[in-house]
Amino acid sequence: MTLPDGQLDARFTLTLSAASGIVLRDGIVHVMGDDRGALDRFLFVDGTPLAPIALIPGDADADAVLAKPDKPDLEALVDLGDGSLLALGSGSRANRERGFRIGADGVQEIDLSPLYARLRQDLPNLNIEGAARVGFELVLAHRGVGKSDASCLVRLDASKLLARRPSSWTAAGLIEIRPVALGQIDGVALAFTDLATDADGTLHYLAAAEDTDDPYLDGACRGSVIGRLTKGSALPTARLRPDVKAEGLAFLGRSVRDNSWAVVTDADDPGLRAKLYELRLPR
Hints:
Elements: E1 5-13, E2 19-25, E3 28-33, E4 38-43, E5 49-54, E6 74-79, E7 85-89, E8 98-103, E9 106-111, H1 113-122, E10 128-134, E11 137-142, E12 152-157, H2 158-162, E13 174-179, E14 184-185, E15 188-189, E16 191-197, E17 203-210, E18 221-230, E19 233-241, E20 246-251, E21 260-265, E22 275-280
Parallel strand pairs: 1-19
Antiparallel strand pairs: 1-22, 2-3, 3-4, 4-5, 6-7, 7-8, 8-9, 10-11, 11-12, 12-13, 14-15, 16-17, 17-18, 18-19, 20-21, 21-22
C-alpha cells in the first residue's frame, strides 16, 4: 500500500505504557490503557497528569499495571455525548467481557458477555479494539488478524443499549456485522485499532499492521494508517510516521476544515511509556 505520509508530532509522554483509547473533552485528555483498571486523565495543554478514575470495584490501587492474563483489556473509549464515557473490553478472553460507563454520578459496570457470545457466532476470534457513537448507532471495530479483510464493523442500536442504562448488553441491539478490507503494509495485513468521528460526524479509523495471527498474542508492528469509512468501505488517508502502533484516535479540529487529530500509541512493552501525538492532515 502506497500512501502519503502523515507526520506524528509528539506533544507529551503519558504515565502509562499500553494506551488503547482516547477522548478529548473540555481540555482534558481521557486515556484508557488496556492493562489498567482505571481511566487516566491529563491536561491537554501540557500533559499534566490528573487523578485517575478507578473503574473496578474494590481495586484499592488505581495506578496498578495488571498482568496480561488478569487485565480487563479495555480497548475502546467513547464519548457518549451526554457527559459520560464508555469503556469496553475486547472480549478476546472470558475475563475481558466487561464495560464501564463513567459519568458524573459514578461508574456503572456492564456485563457484555451476552452480546459478545452472539458476536462470536460470526467472529470466533472476537477482539473489539475501538468504538464510536455515530448518530443513533454505536459502532464497534473488531480487529481481525491474518487477512486484510478479517476486520469487521459491528453496528449496534445505541437506544437499546444506552437509554435505560442496562447492566447487561444483549444482542437485541445488533444491526449488522460487516467485513471491511483494510489492505496491507509491507505484506502484513492491517487491522482496526480505533474509531473516531470528525466535526461533521464522518467515521474515521486507525489500523495497524501487526505481524501476528493470534488475537491474544502481540507481534511486531510494521506501521499504522489513518483513514475514513464511507458506506462500510475503508478509504486510507495516510501512513503514520514514525512507524508506531497507533491505538487511540480523537478529533482535535474545531471545524470540518481543520483535519487535526490526537493519536496515542502502545509499544507492547511495559518498560516504554506511551506518547500522545498530534496529527495534521490536508482536508
